[in-house]
Amino acid sequence: MVSMPLPAMASAVAGLVCLAALPAVAAPPAPDVQALLTPALMEDIRGMLDAPVITLSITAQNERRAGIDQAGIDKLDAEWKAQREADDQPLIAATLSSPSSAYLTQVQAGSGGLYAALFVMDANGLNVGQSAVTSDYWQGDEDKFTKTFPVGPDAVFLDAPEFDDGLKVWLVQLNLTLAENGKAIGTATVELNATELARRAGVAY
Questions:
Q1: For residue 82, what are the CA distances in angstroms to 121, 179, 199?
Q2: Which of 37, 89, 132, 142 could form a disulfide with 83 if both were Cys (CB 3.0 to 4.6 A apart)?
Q3: Which of the listed CATH numbers 3.30.450.20, 3.40.50.1240, 3.40.50.300, 3.30.420.40 matches domain 32-200?
């Protein structure tokens, strides 16, 4: 073991204390996502979500879950949360291996970092397809659902941007009602990398 003279050790400790006391790097200002959501981008997003695999998957689950009550919804949500910590994950595995999840995962992978997460829900707010595991199975009590599906077939709700300290980027959730023949059938959440969106638009912030 190499010994260190006391003065040098004291100096080293003082340096570490100073480093620990440095303030965290402040997040850059959030991009103006509203301005960045151009009609062309919204058209692309709606077109992506209008894929037959999404419409058919939501319609099928609406039929399968028809008549489910709140107790049944809560039971499924509890199962999902418990399975997140378990080795056996039948509900999660079934959802992640569905055709709609495979499609959304492929879309996210091909977005060049623009889409951070994608998931779609049925008329009850229960997950149908997703590109990554969510913390819960039921979204029906959250703004992403309550501010879209009950509002109407064309409803859009843009949540507030949040800075991801791990990724060092701004993320924002764009939530939309999904409809078929003018009737709401479910909802979608598109989590956008707002930092990447601003970069593509050539916006300095």
A1: 20, 32, 39
A2: 89
A3: 3.30.450.20
Mean pLDDT in order along the chain per 10 residues (205 residues): 52 51 72 96 97 98 97 98 96 97 98 98 98 97 98 98 96 98 97 97 78
**What is the 3 state secondary structure string of 115-156?**
EEEEEEECCCCEEEEECCCCCCCECCCCHHHHCCCCCCCCCE
Residue type for position 178: L
pTM for the structure as a whole: 0.86
Report how far residue 120's alpha carbon sits from residue 53's, in angstroms, rounded to the nearest whole number: 11
The identity of residue 84, as a single letter, is R
> Does residue 63 contact residue 71 with C-beta atoms inside 8 Å?
no
